[in-house]
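step=encode ok
step=design start
structure_in=
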């Protein structure tokens, strides 16, 4: 139940006509964060146009491999061995998503994990748009200390009972999303909706069945070497930047072709699309931060990620996504 302070923003009688007609608040737990990691549990809270809960659904999923960081999500090989495969729940999952905007905390990650599972199952999730609650909290200028789900929940007085459990995380997010949505509607805020692009190609290499991996996956030190990684298609290898690195970006000046740009954390625009735009502008997209990096783009400079830490160590300039988008509009040509 939400605390009393969440009711201070009353639901506007004139609801914005452009707002979606329904939402699917989603959380997935996974074996890891890489492209070949798998979903091990999923939860969906269906909400109506004004954010009221209609129903909820939860399922375990057998990832057909090591369950990954058991110490985080608590789901062991023994628990997951008897769970349905993703292809067995794909139809019911799709029915929960159909015709709704997918809402998640760091929605890029959840959508990409879901889209990959559907691609493996030679199908597509019926989702056209997603909404990230991190991006929405920024649009609303909520006074949060960071962008963790627990901070958003605390702001709206939502009590979390079991962190990193898909059903409870989805419940918490649904309860925090409703007052966020009401506040956005009352303030005439445009929702940060983004297109969901389905994946159509996936090639899996054979992997051992769950429960047969060396290491068991139940301890911190073991359980990531018992499967062969799958390969992503199509390949995203970028051509080498043709311009020399002119050095670091200087505040108040223009970007220059050849500058090395790295990205960290969640972005409102699809990361690959943002990287494509940088490449097309003549910038060098770097996968890590070094002394040669010209600029780091992140929406959360206090996140403590390795890239942010290295940028701080090397004195690398940092800008957010919005500022970077402005800089991309006028990139200085390379010398010669």
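sequence_out=
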């Amino acid at each position: 139940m939400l605390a009393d302070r969440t009711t201070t923003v009353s639901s506007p009688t004139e609801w914005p006509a452009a707002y979606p007609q329904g939402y699917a608040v989603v959380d997935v737990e996974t074996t890891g964060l890489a492209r070949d990691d798998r979903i091990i549990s999923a939860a969906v809270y269906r909400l109506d146009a004004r954010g009221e809960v209609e129903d909820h659904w939860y399922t375990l999923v057998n990832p057909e491999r090591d369950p990954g960081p058991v110490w985080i999500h608590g789901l062991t090989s023994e628990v997951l061995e008897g769970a349905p495969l993703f292809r067995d729940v794909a139809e019911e999952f799709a029915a929960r998503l159909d015709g709704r905007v997918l809402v998640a905390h760091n929605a890029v990650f959840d959508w990409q994990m879901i889209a990959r599972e559907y691609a493996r199952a030679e199908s597509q999730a019926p989702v056209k748009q997603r909404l990230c609650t991190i991006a929405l909290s920024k649009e609303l200028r909520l006074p949060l200390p960071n962008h963790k789900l627990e901070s958003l929940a605390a702001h709206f007085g939502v009590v979390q009972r079991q962190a990193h459990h898909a059903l409870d995380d989805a419940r918490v997010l649904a309860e925090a999303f409703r007052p966020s949505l009401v506040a956005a509607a009352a303030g005439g805020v445009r929702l940060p909706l983004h297109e969901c692009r389905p994946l159509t190609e996936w090639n899996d290499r054979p992997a051992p069945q769950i429960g047969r991996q060396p290491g068991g996956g139940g301890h911190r030190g073991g359980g990531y070497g018992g499967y062969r990684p799958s390969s992503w298609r199509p390949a995203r290898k970028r051509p080498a930047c043709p311009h020399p690195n002119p050095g670091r970006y200087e505040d108040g000046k223009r970007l220059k072709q050849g500058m090395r740009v790295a990205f960290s954390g969640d972005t409102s625009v699809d990361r690959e699309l943002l990287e494509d735009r940088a490449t097309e502008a003549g910038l060098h997209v770097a996968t890590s931060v070094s002394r040669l990096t010209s600029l780091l783009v992140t929406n959360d400079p206090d996140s403590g990620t390795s890239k942010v830490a290295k940028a701080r160590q090397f004195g690398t300039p940092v800008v957010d996504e919005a500022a970077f988008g402005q800089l991309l509009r006028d990139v200085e040509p390379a010398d010669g």
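step=design ok
step=annotate ok -> Confidence is low (pLDDT under 50) at residues 1-8, 205-235.
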